[in-house]
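Suppose you are handed only two things: the residues of a chain and a line of SMILES describing flavin-adenine dinucleotide. What would the bound structure be? This form records exactly that question and the answer produced for it, so the two can be stored side by side and reused later without any lookup.

QUESTION INPUTS
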Amino acid sequence: MELPPPLAETIAARLGVRACRSEPLARHTSFRIGGPADLLVVPETVDELAFVLRAASACGATVTMLGGGSNVLVGDGGVRGVVVKLGRGFARVEWHDGEGGAEVRAGAGANLGRLARTAASRGLAGLEHAEGIPGTVGGALFMNAGAYGGDVASAAVAVEGLDGRGELVVLPRAALAFRYRGTALPPRFVVTAVRFALRAEAPDAVRGRLEDVRRRRVASQPHGRANAGSMFKNPAGDHAGRLIDVAGLKGARIGRARISERHANFIVNEGGASAGDVKGLMDLAQRVVWERSGVWLEPEVRFVGSW
Ligand SMILES: Cc1cc2nc3c(=O)[nH]c(=O)nc-3n(C[C@H](O)[C@H](O)[C@H](O)COP(=O)(O)OP(=O)(O)OC[C@H]3O[C@@H](n4cnc5c(N)ncnc54)[C@H](O)[C@@H]3O)c2cc1C
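ANSWER OUTPUT
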């Protein structure tokens, strides 16, 4: 729904310059692609976030959450309503040492890779797979981000957040239905913090595994060009990148977007690509892989906004 003008004024009166009209979302995505948000707001506290959610709900405006913007393709038409990006006030990390390990409470705005590296330096195991995954803890929980055999689900024990009415809710692990690259959260739930249980191990061993993940990533993924990681989920028993590669699509280009020569499940922005260029390449990959291999690739990247 379009942004009702009084809503923008109500939110701006409380958040000041942290409520920006017509903010280009290309500035907030790893793809460097995306049209303007009607209103981008950056709350710094749970109270401010609850205020924004309640104000938007009261007038029926759509709220779209944005973390680090590293798994989204935002349409060239931008996003109607309110886009919420958690501020630095949500990046706090608390470490509670316990028997055989620690419980870590990480704000949803904390950087996932930095959290994994700090955990490793403290000799805490369970997040090594996250080395090199960009974005926030909130986005990683929502996506159940993972790599090289690990994922967020394996270490998360509870999630704190606000429901659609702006009420604080704590979801225990048993209430979180994790799946491959996804978590079933209540509708309109906003993650504000995640609690992880990490095991104590020799710091050198944890750092060694983290370094191994880093080396494998550097060796196999494109660097130096804006992208959003894997475009498609791996189908059962196979790899989307392999299927796109054998379909002969490495290097295929539409406009300024190109299927990476290095890893066929990555699309890179060669500078000035539109969301339409990327979507066109994704449609092409789906069609050609279907014709060649009989597999319909399911997007991993989330489509956001208007096209
Ligand atoms: C170079 C590169 C490598 C990557 N490698 C991997 C990898 O190995 N494994 C992997 O799984 N992913 C990978 N990704 C994808 C991406 O980094 C992850 O999915 C990441 O966890 C997304 O986090 P984000 O904060 O950027 O979320 P965003 O992309 O901003 O958002 C993703 C989704 O989460 C929702 N969301 C974000 N924050 C919240 C919140 N606080 N509450 C509720 N919903 C929220 C958004 O609405 C959106 O639907 C890679 C991306 C890049 C660019």
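WHAT STANDS OUT: The chain has a mean pLDDT of 96. The longest strand covers residues 190-200.
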